[in-house]
Specification:
25% of the residues lie in helices and 23% in strands. With 139 residues, it is α+β, with helices and mostly antiparallel strands.
Length: 139
């Protein structure tokens, strides 16, 4: 199973250029995996369509990175290239990751959706307007 994770720094207009940083360790034994140039071109085209000025991406297979790359500039004004370790502002996409992790814990039996989130956090979490009401994972 392949997982493609894309994190974007902002949504400004861009032009297609070649990658600024590259680490290729693609699984060449997989006939469904395109060559690096074709794959890079497809990613850059999708970046163009989505108006992405920067991108760091990796493909995971069996919990191992089999391909990774960074594109464009993390800071275009100062000409700082994006690299695999570039820290991006993830904003609302973190809700998706959090929900996925919570449901994985639920599937593994580590939590119940009606448990108080305070027990998992290790400190009390309450809505200041409703301090006596428990906040659960299901909410």
């Amino acid at each position: 199973m392949l997982i493609l994770l894309i994190i974007v720094i902002s949504f400004e207009t861009i032009h297609i250029y070649s990658p600024v940083y590259h680490i290729a360790s693609a699984d060449k034994t997989n006939s469904h995996f395109p060559d690096d140039t074709t794959f890079d071109n497809k990613i850059q085209f999708l970046m163009y369509l989505a108006h992405m000025p920067s991108l760091s991406v990796c493909i995971l297979k069996n919990n191992s990175i089999i391909w990774s790359n960074a594109y464009k500039h993390a800071d275009r004004k100062n000409h700082i290239p994006a690299i695999l370790d570039t820290i991006y502002m993830v904003a609302s996409i973190s809700k998706t990751f959090t929900a996925t992790a919570i449901l994985q814990f639920y599937e593994q039996g580590k939590i119940n959706l009606d448990d108080d989130v305070s027990s998992a956090a290790g400190f009390p979490i309450r809505n200041p307007r409703y301090p006596n009401q428990t906040i659960t994972f299901r909410m």
